[in-house]
Design a protein that fits this description.
By secondary structure, this protein is an alpha+beta fold. It has a domain of 231 residues. 47% of the residues lie in helices and 14% in strands. It has a six-stranded antiparallel β-sheet, with helices on both faces. A two-stranded antiparallel sheet has the order 1-4. The protein has a two-stranded antiparallel ribbon with strand order 2-3. A hairpin with a 2-residue loop joins strand 9 and strand 10. Helix 4 runs antiparallel to helix 12 and helix 5 runs parallel beside helix 12. The longest helix is centred in the C-terminal third of the chain and has 29 residues. It is globular. The two termini are 26 Å apart. The relative contact order is 0.21.
Length: 394
């Protein structure tokens, strides 16, 4: 059956239905798609959570927003890979969000509640170690856990053909229209053509592809991209570029005002420039492949997609794997925060972070109580979401 791309005015309704469906699939998926509920909880938790230094934070630091990321030269590190909600804020918020996400992932794997207690211990250790002066990248070893090792090994072995097959279903220079990619209006196609004539886009491509100095950059194809739930109501496009004999897949994503609570500190006023600035602070490999510009007068981020860019999906993991992964990923977040602090700031934040340790649990009491409250709130909200979704189908 041939798929017919929806018109521009029909996209929002289809995306909303898809979002409700995804969030109904599991409690873990609900947590990923209901970020605003986390921010609502933060409003009620003022005074319960330590106030850290004003630095760039992810703002939505869940498991799916961490993974292998390639720089413009093909080197790979595990970094924060989505900065839509990035703000200058309290680093404790990233730690709580990560702990919540990992806790819900273990519940989806039918692991006992003691796993969460053990994970919070390792999250505290991994994050604290990353803040100590002189520490480099969190080490990837046999103890890191199979889920992380498998994804990293896959990332290191991937080439253009893997990205093309996964994203556009073929290595041919076209984007096949279907359920993920929708046809553009003439206005959108014209605007994409103009965008890649802009100085910002040209400078990005020249950094990523040396061939662009000898060959003209050509827009081979483009489509509206239905990707994830976070793009609901925003502009989102996939663009296939030709540079000499090489191809380049580019993501154009609208940037909007962050819903994450931030500190009253100066930062870029332009939404897209905020994301690029945050990426360069938190995830240098990713930030090096992004620029901010305008599309039909709206702020957008233009980013090259690389075959090595993957996200973690812990569908079924053991308790040992979950605990080891928690320590490692907390170290990744800690390193992203630490590079923005001097030695004195790190020491002061560590002292505040590790205050109020439990008598028998090597994790701060504020982190444990935060996760317990959030898990309970999200489990209840998830069931109500499923009820509403079921009613909408009847």
């Amino acid at each position: 059956m041939k798929f017919s791309s929806p018109q521009e005015h029909q996209r929002a309704e289809i995306l909303q239905r898809q979002q409700r469906l995804k969030m109904a699939r599991s409690a873990q998926a609900y947590v990923r798609g209901s970020t605003v509920k986390f921010y609502e909880w933060l409003e009620t938790a003022k005074g319960k959570v330590p106030d850290g230094p004003a630095i760039w934070i992810c703002g939505d630091c869940h498991l799916g927003n961490l993974g292998p990321v390639s720089d413009s030269d093909g080197k790979v590190e595990i970094e924060i890979r989505d900065l839509d909600q990035a703000v200058i804020g309290n680093p404790a918020h990233d730690l709580i969000r990560l702990a919540l996400s990992l806790s819900m992932a273990t519940r989806s794997s039918d692991l006992p509640g003691v796993t969460t207690a053990l994970m919070l211990e390792q999250i505290t250790i991994g994050y604290s170690e990353a803040l100590k002066p002189g520490r480099g990248n969190p080490r990837i070893s046999k103890k890191t856990g199979k889920p992380i090792q498998i994804v990293l090994k896959e990332a290191l072995s991937r080439k253009w053909r893997h990205l093309a097959t996964e994203r556009i279903e073929d290595v041919r220079p076209t984007i096949p229209l279907g359920r993920k990619f929708w046809a553009l209006s003439k206005k959108e196609r014209d605007e994409i053509g103009r965008l890649f004539e802009s100085q910002e886009a040209k400078s990005l491509v020249s950094r990523l592809r040396s061939e662009s100095k000898k060959h003209k950059v050509e827009v081979l194809d483009a489509a509206y991209w239905m990707k994830g739930c976070s793009s609901l109501g925003r502009l989102r496009y996939a663009v296939l570029l030709g540079v000499g004999k090489t191809f380049c897949l580019v993501d154009i994503k609208e940037a909007v005002e962050a819903a994450a609570p931030g500190k009253k500190t100066r930062g870029p006023k332009d939404y897209a420039e905020r994301l690029v600035t945050a990426a360069r602070a938190l995830s240098p490999y990713l930030g090096d492949r992004m620029v901010s510009t305008k599309f039909t007068g709206r702020s957008v981020v233009v980013r090259e997609l690389r075959p090595q860019d993957l996200k973690f999906e812990f569908d079924q993991i053991t308790q040992e794997e979950a605990v080891e992964a928690a320590k490692f990923l907390a170290g990744v977040v800690g390193r992203a925060h630490a590079r923005q602090m001097n030695v004195e700031t790190r020491k002061a934040w560590l002292a505040k972070l590790n205050g109020h340790q439990g008598k028998t649990l090597d994790a701060p009491s504020w982190l444990w109580s935060s996760v317990v409250e959030l898990v309970a709130a999200h489990e209840a909200a998830y069931l109500e979401h499923c009820r509403q979704y079921a009613l909408s189908l009847s």
